[in-house]
């Protein structure tokens, strides 16, 4: 039998090598796509947590801008932001912020005198509003700025959702003191 030097086509070894290399390249591509998909999902969750924390801080800041005082005696105790309106017969408006489980709620109450404060454990469900979810920690304190003797709220918010987590530490100044 004579062997022809110019035969066309691929040998079995060449085909097997091509299939093996293609399988390796495809497995690398699939692994990279899976990694980028997980990374994108985690980034989306982190952005969602950052946005929610920013909304919580914006709400507290908006209330504190109109406030005349604030109280946050200890961790686990609700924060109270107080606005005394001298134009309306010393009407006192109180905004209360508290954590219950993994959520932050707030409520608003109007009282006529400062002695009629809110009983924190008796806040009605229908008067409270959900401010944020996925909260691990919501605590802080009210301190006085040594430079200008104005009060400020130091708020710490930790949020977590699966692999994503976000920690927010904010100083919120009370304007109308």
List keywords for this structure.
177 residues, 8 strands, rod-shaped, three-stranded antiparallel beta sheet, alpha+beta, 1 helix, 37% strand, five-stranded antiparallel beta sheet
Uncertain stretches: 112-118
The first-to-last residue Cα distance is 107 Å
Beta-strand percent range: 35-45%
Largest beta-sheet details:
5 strands, antiparallel
Helices and strands, in order, run as: HEEEEEEEE
Annotation, overall tally of beta strands? 8
Q: What is the typical, i.e. mean, pLDDT? A: 84
Number of domains: 1
Tell me the Rg in angstroms: 30 Å
The helix fraction, in percent, is 25-40%
Strand line-up of the largest beta sheet: 1-2-3-4-5
Structural class: alpha+beta
**What would the principal axes of the Cα set say about the shape?**
rod-shaped
SS element count, helices: 1
């Amino acid at each position: 039998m004579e062997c022809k030097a110019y035969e066309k086509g691929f040998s079995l070894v060449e085909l097997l090598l091509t299939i093996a290399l293609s399988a390796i390249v495809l497995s690398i591509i699939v692994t990279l796509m899976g990694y980028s998909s997980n990374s994108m999902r985690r980034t989306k969750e982190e952005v969602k947590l950052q946005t929610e924390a920013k909304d919580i801080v914006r709400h507290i800041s908006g209330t504190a801008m109109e406030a005349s005082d604030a109280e946050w005696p200890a961790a686990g105790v609700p924060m109270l932001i107080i606005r005394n309106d001298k134009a309306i017969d010393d009407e006192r408006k109180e905004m209360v912020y508290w954590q219950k489980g993994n959520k932050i709620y707030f409520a608003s109450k109007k009282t006529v005198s400062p002695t009629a404060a809110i009983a924190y454990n008796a806040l009605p469900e229908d008067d409270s509003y959900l401010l944020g979810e996925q909260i691990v920690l919501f605590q802080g304190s009210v301190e006085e700025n040594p430079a200008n003797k104005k009060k400020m709220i130091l708020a710490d918010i930790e949020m977590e959702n699966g692999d994503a987590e976000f920690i927010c530490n904010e100083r919120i100044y009370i304007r109308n003191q």
